[in-house]
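#lab-general

N.A. 3:47 PM
ok so I finally got the sequence cleaned up, no stray characters, all 147 residues accounted for. can someone with queue access submit it? mine expired

B.Y. 3:52 PM
send it over

N.A. 3:53 PM
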Amino acid sequence: MRDLSLQILDLVQNSINARAGTIRIGIAADTERDLLEITITDDGQGMDPEFAKTIDDPFVTSRKTRKVGLGVPLLKAAAERSEGSARIESAKGKGTVASAEFRISHIDRPPLGDPVETLVSLIAAWPNLRFILTMESKNGSFELDTR
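B.Y. 4:20 PM
back already:
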């Protein structure tokens, strides 16, 4: 994917498909640690442990429309290319937390893109869902809550 905001969009779509009512998007840039962190947290249906073990496989998906699930493997690959990592934690009936870390200065880190435009698109498409965007850096923090 061209930029990380599109990765965010893909992960949020997974949360929507999991019937989440509230989706939190966190973006934190820590230039002292040279670290960009992105976290998506939802209160959706979560995954059972057996399915959760398979989410790194691009040929596994819960969708019926297509037989590939590239979002999580692409995020993990992008994070690892920039000396970072990606994790998915999920529990059936309790929701999912997807997080990724990227070294900010790494030449292979994808650009952040426009997460605000991504959020505006999500709000317009899903006005009944609660979205919370939190952005943090050494210059301060910002939170938008659609509630």
